[in-house]
Amino acid sequence: MPHGLAQMLALRRVMIALGVSALLGFIISPGFTTTPTGEVMARDMAVGLAALLAFGIFEQWPARLPPWLARWFLQVAAVAFVIPIAVLAVYLTITYGESVPWYKSPLRLNGFFTMTMTGMLVAPWVAVAALFHQRDFAARSQAMAFELERSELERKALDSRLRLLQAQVEPHFLFNTLANVRELVEAGSPQASAVLDSLIAYLRAAVPRLHEPATTLGQELQLVRAYLELMHMRMPDRLQFSLQADDAALGLRCPPTTLLTLVENAVRHGIDPSEEGGRIEVRVQVQDGRCRAEVSDTGVGLGRAGDGPGTGLSTLRERLQLAFGGDAQLTLAALIPHGARAVVDFPAQPSPA
Fold it and tell me: Looking at the domain assignment, is residue 267 inside a domain?
């Protein structure tokens, strides 16, 4: 915000002061029978500039006022006080060198009092109006500043919450996956070494993405395929899977591990508890500006999954709400004769480049 002379002589202020003064001069000009209208307007404009300077000076000086003196009162009083002084200066200037002093000329004296009285009647009210406008502008500016600060704090809070939820997802996923490897090792499976090598390669690509605020469905599908291949190596006779996705969906934005959480939940709570195993199908479709990601399995189903869906889905549901401002849904339904389907629906938003 400008200060000092730049604030006192701001273009908007000068234009308003000159405009009001010119209008006032035009109104009183019929009383100046021997003076052209333009000259009367010019005199009033000079007085108006003097009043503007007085208003601006006491707007900033003194820096501190006693508690009993309001600055607005000082500014209005200064404007009223400077009017007769400014009119006097104008008349001294225009009558300089004349043989008869202006105060001895009835026409000059009448003009002096006319300009002084009209100026003292109008200028303080103009100053009061300017003060009200300033106060309203300051209030609106402060409200906007508070709103921006509140929005920034809300954004930071949401970002912190999202990162906290992602931090919860990371150990949840890693511990579950490592538990699968441990089962192979304890069972003495010859596939344990190959699965561990695949897991290391997978984690090397997957873990960095867990820290990103958003990823694409195309990247998610790559991770899901790698994860399902790992699980297939662990139980080749009990797990089959397929992945289908619209080309338009591959570049869409989504929170990290969105599909992976659904697929991991299907493996852990659907396929693993089933003696016969089952099949997992992943479908991603885009329609009418929305993206629908569906993960279905032919496992034991919701009613027979021993310990329920766990925390993965509830955490994912909250992450989706934070990422899409509440415009996202996660539903879980049972399939007949057995199995479950998890569906995520959210706005189809392209990932930023």
Answer: yes
* Judgement on whether residues 199 and 100 belong to the same structural domain of the protein: no
- Any idea what DSSP says for residue 96? T
Which parts of the chain fold into alpha helices (H)? Answer: 4-8, 11-28, 37-60, 71-94, 106-186, 192-210, 217-234, 258-266, 312-323
> 238 near 278, Cβ under 8 Å?
yes
Nearest Cα residue to 162 out of 325, 341, 338, 339: 325
Q: Which tokens in the block code for residue 206?
A: 């997957």
Q: What gap in Å lies between CA 103 and CA 112, rounded to an integer?
A: 9
Q: Which are the contacts of 44, defined by CB distance < 8 A and separation ≥ 6?
A: 21, 22, 24, 25, 28, 115, 119
Q: Is residue 179 part of a domain?
A: no
By three-state DSSP, how is residue 240 classified?
strand
Q: Report the C-alpha gap between 216 and 86 in whole angstroms.
A: 71
339 found inside a domain? yes
| pLDDT, tens digit (0-9, with 9 covering 90-100), for 220-243 | 898 888 888 878 877 888 999 999
CATH number where 266 lies: 3.30.565.10
Query: Is pTM beyond 0.90 here?
Result: no
CA distance 109 to 321: 78
CB 284 within 8 A of CB 249: yes
| Together in a domain, 105 and 240 | no
The tens digit of pLDDT for each residue in 165-199 reads: 555 555 655 676 677 677 777 877 777 777 777 77
Domains held by the chain: number? 2
- Look up the domain containing 77 and give its range: 4-149
For residue 292, what pLDDT is reported? 96
